[in-house]
Write a structure and sequence with these properties.
The chain is of the alpha+beta class. The chain is built from four helices and 14 strands. α1 packs across α4.
Amino acid sequence: MKTHSILPLLFLLFAFLFSCKNDSKKEFNVSPKEFSILDSIRELNNISVVYDENFFPKFKSDFKSSGNSTLVDSMQWPYYKILYYGRGEKWFKYPSKELLENYPIWYRINSDFVKGKIQFSDFENFNSPDLKIVVDTTQIINNERMFMGQLKGDSYAVYIMNNSNLWYIANMGSRFPILMQAMNRNGEWQHIEYSISPMDAVIFYLLEPKSYFVTSARKYEGDFKTKFRLKFKQRGKFIYSNEFSGSMNLSQFAIPEMSKTNDMGKKNYSIFLE
């Protein structure tokens, strides 16, 4: 099993042990027959949605750009993982001990799931906000914290934001269902990244009101100047990021032959997780 597939399992175990250690605290002292943290959050989410259009992450990357973009000749398989969690003026690396200590309720969701207090079906009619995705081309993220393979180059900061007064909870693997698109010569949006369905662990991720995740998107380079955007799947529909300018090679619109089939000759990829 690949390292990036094991990490979520280890972090979930860490979170579970951490929450068990804190069970003696009054605010988390609940029993399966009473209620779970999800019940409290569901009650909060019955409040009418009020969006704050002035909300924007305060995250500031301390990574200095090397000035190198990623130069490729075919469609790429990206890895949009959580790098940071932030709220207001504070943000923490993911995963980290500091994050667990400052936001224990964020991880108790997974503890309640392990203990059987939360089921997948509990989220079928859960009142949840739409998130917003923003690419910040002024912020560069350190590639050492990304699954980049042999590719080198700078990456832009990407914010997954909850700018509502609702709590957002979703279960997913170790990466976000995001792919980059570019505008072709005909003025149409076309994928320049593809997705292979991974066998990742499923963990619940939580964004409380006015909070955000930080992931990153590769900064591509080539002889074709165009516009880009990110396509993000959430709750059965797609949302799109802001558009930003850059360059790439036209050959990146082509899917690599090696990615089209597996060893059994069956289709092993998808342009997006439909």
